[in-house]
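Why this split exists: single-chain examples teach little about how molecules sit against one another. For that reason, every record in the complexes split bundles all components of an assembly together and asks for one structure covering all of them. Below is a record exactly as it appears in the raw files.
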Amino acid sequence: MYTKDKKDKEDGILLGAVAYDPKVVTIWEGIREHFREQGVALDLALYSSYERQVEELLAGHIDIAWNTPLAHVRVRRRTGGESRSLGMRDCDRDFRAKVIARRDRGVRGLGDLEGKTLAVGSRDSTQARILPLHFLSKEGVRVDRVRLLPFDTDLGKHGDTGASEIAVLQAVQEGRADAGAIGDLIWVTEQAAGHVDMKAIDLLWTTPPFDHCMFDGHPALPPAKAEAFTRALFAMRWENAEHRRLLELEGLREWLPPREEGYRSLEEALAAETRANG
Amino acid sequence: MMSADLAAIAIDGGELPLGGGLLALVRPALDALRPGGVLAVLSSSPGLRDDLPSWCRADRHEYLGVETTSGGADRHLIARGRFSVPRPMAGGAAPGPAASSETESSGEIVHPAVADPASGFAPRGARLEPGRPDYPFTLNERDRVAPPEVAQLYAQAAAAQWDAARDIPWSKARQLPGPLDAALAQTMTFLAENELSALYVPSRFMAKIHPAYAETAMFLATQLADEARHIDLFLRRARLCRGGLGVSSVATAQSLLSLLTTDDFMEATFLLSVLGEGTFLDLLAFVERHAPDEATAELARRARNDESRHVHFGLAHVRHGLARDPALYARLESAVRRRAATLQGIGGVPAPLQDSLTLLAAGSVEPRAVSRGHDAFQELLAVMHDSRIKRLGHAGFTPEQAATLSLLHTPNFM
């Protein structure tokens, strides 16, 4: 159901977020307090899946949803592009996925993946499944000839927990898969932490860039509310100790304005999937 | 290197992959650059062409690109991002250009006039990553905390530490006849009780001192160690007496309670170190002079040496404060008057103390000897008053102020 003319609530902004981890409460209670200091009343509705959150946004039960790229692209499609994109994290821009491979399995180029086992993340994970496979197929890899070892952890969370990416990395390190697909941030942070055996694992390929999460406003969100939301959001500063605690938990240094071009590849991938499924 | 304002740096990463130690070279180099400053990473690790741009994205630096050098290696260029650029500590209006690390590296200590609340436990001179929490230190102004001599006083105190078990000739402690044994036990009981208060009173302030003035906290740590040693010392001597410990009087208990409940650091230093421990210098000299044996004389002498450092710190603290804050004298006088008011009705020196010191100086219960002991005790009181006045003069008080304050001082000595 998509309710185009949602009835505006008087009592501030109601934001939806998916509780993929207990820290989500800490993050949003902190941001709610920051909004209060900025004179903006914000309340929070937590969901256990992005599918439900998207429906609640479209039905007008919440004003804004903090969405994964998959949820964002669905909201854009369902509202005919009339939803109001409000902002994103700096780290949501130019995300990439990495295809990594064991050095001892003879995988030297993308063509070598055919016939091999490729560990991938949850089927609703943009960075560890949907887009790596989409980009591989655009590179000419016959994905249907690659044996997928999927880790469908936390379905509905769209890969937010990172659990499936860690599982992919482990499967490759332990030799249960010849290769694997994970997001670039997990790849470099796991390397920086010394968790990756670089003698055993090599980077095979990096995908083109794509964008990640987005605040999606309902099409009928009053401009004053949208303006109040972005004003308070963009006032958060990395140099402020209280803000930094929250930004660090949410994985960003600063909030940035929205942009749509970074979601084209995901739209294409979903359209291709729809075509393939008949 | 560590000034965080360099424009360009080059490092050689050899074959190191990103997850194989390269970051130990890259991150410190980036930290030494100003935002926008460029780091060149020479590398023959092919994986870096993919990994370095991703790491730059994760750490918010700008990856500018890669070029191949004539030697065939890659040269990656990174522009330092604008987040988490370490800043110098805010130092208030310290003398000279700033309380910077450069000034300190010459060996001279520069305490900031006002401490940076966000510097927390970062040692003075360290650069601070921004976005840090404020610490709740309340003693955060130089003039209230750190006299210029404090580092020197700390160094002296650290060099002068000693061991109560090893450095006192305990075998030379003598058994005394009954009344003299009890008098010595009483004196040691009194000294230990007062030194316990001297252990507790400064400790109330240590955790409030901003670490920008760490030398003051460190000096107080030596003072606490001294007091701990003295407590041990006096109790060891008391326990060598046959009759066990003496009496703790209400007068002493009230006097020390009024000291413990003083909430201002400067006032507490003044009451404890200038007036109390200052008076104790004369008391310990008296005990040394009239000690019945070599062990007792030596412990009094060594304790007095330690106490004189505490008095020096107290004098420096108060003198520095008086020179910069004309209102301080009135505050200190009212602190002394407040304390005297709570001790009204106590009368003179606590009787157990007066009697034991009299007998100690007499060295005998023979009446003529006791008469000499009585005179020696009266002379002690006069000497204490005179030295307090002299000491207060050194601290910066006028002779009239000094006389007033000395007369108001507690009859308990501490």
